[in-house]
Amino acid sequence: MASAYLSRTPSSNGNQKKFTFSAWIKITKLGGQRTIFCGYYGNQNRYTQFWQGTDDKIVFFSGDYSTSSTTQAVNLKTTRTLRDTSAWYHLVLVVDTTLATQADRAKLYINGELETWDTGYGSHLLPDLNDEYFINVNTTPLHIGTYDTTSTYFDGLMTHIHLTDGYAYAASDFGETDSTSGIWKPKTSPSVTYGTNGFFLKMENSSDMGEDSSGNNNDFTTSGTITQTEDTPSNNFATLNAVYKAAYQPTFSTGNLTATAPNSGEYYPAFSSLGVESGKWYMEYKIGAAGTFHIGICSENDANTVFPTTDNYMGESSKSVGISDGNGSYYISASATSYGSSYTSGDIIGLALDMTNKKLYVSKNGTFFNSANPASGTGGIDISGILSSGDIAFFAHSCYGGTGTRAIEANFGNGRFGTTALASSNSDGDGLGLFEYSVPSGYYALCTKNIKNYG
Length: 455
Prior knowledge:
By secondary structure, the protein is an all-beta fold. It folds into two domains: 5-223, Jelly Rolls; 251-454, Jelly Rolls (Sandwich), CATH 2.60.120. 3% of the residues lie in helices and 35% in strands. The protein has helices at 300-305, 448-454, and strands at 5-8, 18-27, 34-40, 47-52, 57-63, 72-81, 89-96, 106-110, 113-114, 117-119, 142-144, 156-165, 175-177, 184-186, 199-201, 221-223, 251-253, 258-261, 267-271, 280-287, 292-299, 320-324, 330-332, 335-337, 348-354, 359-364, 367-368, 381-382, 393-400, 406-411, 416-417, 420-421. The strands form six sheets. An eight-stranded antiparallel sheet has the order 10-6-5-4-3-11-1-16, with no helix packed on it. The radius of gyration is 24 Å and the shape is elongated. The model has no long low-confidence stretch (mean pLDDT 94).
């Protein structure tokens, strides 16, 4: 969400002692305080907040409900850290301060498993009996994705956001284990009662991202730009890998789909968060601020051994290939082979990766270089020497951080470049993903459903 958020102030009071909050989130930033939801009346503990902490643990904090009191009431955080920026997490916070057992009054489930609370920030406070919080109050706005509308914005993806007013539910009411894969997945139409101020935000209406689907019409107001994506808990799409540690690390933004190299004389690489061993795959890069780019693929070998320690461009070694923006030539072992044409700011480079026949095809603004045809297997770059038997390949690029900053935006079928939704609506043969240009026949978006079927 970056600096965007959702907000709503209840028109009447609900239950301040008992509620359930459920949401699926995909974290894209680590090491900072990022709010998931907050009932904010004012500072000095006059708020109820649920957030990702600076140590990447999940925190539940609240003051005692009062317009004047500044006393802390609950201060808890998880023992578990959430640091996988390529995965979706399901969080269910269940609060019921009327229960006799203190440890049962605030419970958190992550992906269906009950978590253990650790010491909070500066203290460890479990709820007292019949505590009231800054939730479901007609004088207290509820924010999704920010603390006070000006700070600690959530930077990532959210969907299927529920609040039940006056009802305590378990994680199994909102999610379930897939009988085939064993993976925790959402119940798209859970059987729950929402109460007076409850809501269900599916985040599926691009023209009204705050639309409530609970039947209560408790719609939220959108502030800033909240961009819809094809990336969901049911089908996880690749992004750029923000936790990969290269010798020179670009800055990632817009849900880890944009990589920016600083004004510095080194090469800054980035890789897809999902890799493939077999199958046929398609994705697109859009060039932002023009610079020195090499766009292509990298083997697992080089991703593990070369780029974490060396200032290399894609194609400088023998286990990666990069298409130069200067002349469209491709590089392997720092040796150039004439192939296409130059590209610059605003151009969209498509990559069609055939892991079955070990070929890479490259297009510019919808036209493939070298008169290639990925569907028929003609005109591609031979990458058989790059990949060892059983090796995994990643879509990848490198950017030389020379004078000024350099930016590039990736679309693995997520449906946008940066924060801008695509004007086109081209999908793969299974109807998955959204791309600017047509997907070659037999090639698929890089997402978990397709990897299961074709990888």
